[in-house]
Amino acid sequence: MIKTFSKVKNRNRISNAYIVMSLLNEDRKLKHLFDGSDWNVYELKILNLGVGAPGTDLLQHCADIFRQATEHRLKIDNERNSSMLFQYGPTSGTYEARFQIAKYFSQMYKSEVKCEDLIVTSGATQGLHVILSTLVDLNGFIFVDEVTYMLALDSIKQFHTLTIIPIKLNNDGVDLDDLEEQLKENLFKTTKKEFWGMYYTIPTYHNPTGILFSSDTCKGLVKLARKYGILITCDDVYNILYYNDTKVPKRLFDYDNKSDKDYRGHIISNGSFSKILGPGVRLGWLELPKRMKKVLDSCGIINSGGCLNNYTSGIVASLFELGLAQTYIQRMYAAYKERMLATCAILEKELPESCKLVIPEGGYFIWITLDGNCCASEFLKFCMEEEQIFFIVGSRFAVASDKASNCLRLSIAFHSKEKLEDAARRFCLCLKKFLKK
């Protein structure tokens, strides 16, 4: 008995010690995604041109409109819906939320978006994860552009059994010949999932290059998807941020015409409010063909908790009902357009002639190719030392680590027009100095 008591006493001492240690272990108390890094976008000593997120001057308007929308939605919920806002939501999301999303984007795209084709998500990243885990054979293939959104690439890599194959990218979009060659070489019949392979891309104001896939490229993609039975997933998060004073570009989803005789549905549009309302809202949607929607509606990850963001989607529905979202998004659009045009004007004028600049017609990003012998990583070190300007090097967006090593991406989203103009001038002067080394 004495020995047993002694053991219990010792265990209690160890347990108490761990409790004390955990209490003494101070939390980092991070405030946002970029906090704690060497290139914190909120750190005034560093001018971060790498972050693809709206700045404080834009997001500060959210508090007021979300307060109004929350009061509106809670009043409705109390009077009509028996607190359904706080219940597990229907798997696709409530009709009210999907209707408002469909209505707004139908008007923006000048093309019908049907609410019955939508599934509410908590953002494009989750949308991609749900697609990969439910629709694609995990022993299959994921085809990506040779440079693509780096965090989507990180997400895909988490599915370790998938084989990732990079495809050449041209000025008007993916190289269709290269893609078809890879499809032929890797084609197999799956018995486990809807699709043996998937092509992931950002066809409208591509991340990181900023290019817009041409109509011919989009038509060719639909033909290849139908011919080889693959899924195409598009991150459609920049589509309404078009800056050339024409109409919004046609989405790849619309090229997969339901009236075609050979239509089965091969394309998913993966949308998000992160760029046009705020990343912290964590709300997005999938627009997808009926056969895929049926699979996702019944999958475990959605059925387990119902709608992936029921509460917030209700608030956002009120934002649109009250007209608050429309005004706010227009403000975001105007700011982004002003920033992109001003930044590109300076880069076009002052960038060294040996460098290539892709001037985008919309979106967030500017892609620069340095002289063939230049290393973007080395220039980043130099730029940080000389001007405290940060950007993301091209190789970060590639499957192969040696790809795009002389390229870099700049973002226009976070900083004011004046700050971006100053940054662009300093960036160009620093690059000229670096090239003379």
Can you walk through the features of this model?
The protein is α/β, with parallel strands linked by helices and 437 residues long. The protein has two domains: 32-52 and 327-435, Aspartate Aminotransferase, domain 1 (Alpha-Beta Complex), CATH 3.90.1150.10; 73-323, 3-Layer(aba) Sandwich (Aspartate Aminotransferase, domain 2). The chain is 44% helix and 15% strand. The chain has helices spanning 2-24, 56-59, 62-79, 95-109, 124-135, 150-157, 176-186, 215-228, 252-255, 290-297, 300-303, 310-321, 324-350, 376-387, 417-435, and strands spanning 47-48, 118-121, 136-145, 163-167, 169-170, 173-174, 195-201, 231-235, 267-272, 284-287, 356-358, 365-369, 389-390, 392-393, 407-411. The chain has a seven-stranded mixed sheet, sandwiched between helices. Helix 7 (176-186) runs parallel beside helix 8 (215-228) and helix 13 packs parallel to helix 15 (417-435). The longest helix is centred in the C-terminal third of the chain and has 27 residues, at 324-350. The chain is globular, with a radius of gyration of 24 Å. The termini are far apart. The mean pLDDT is 93.
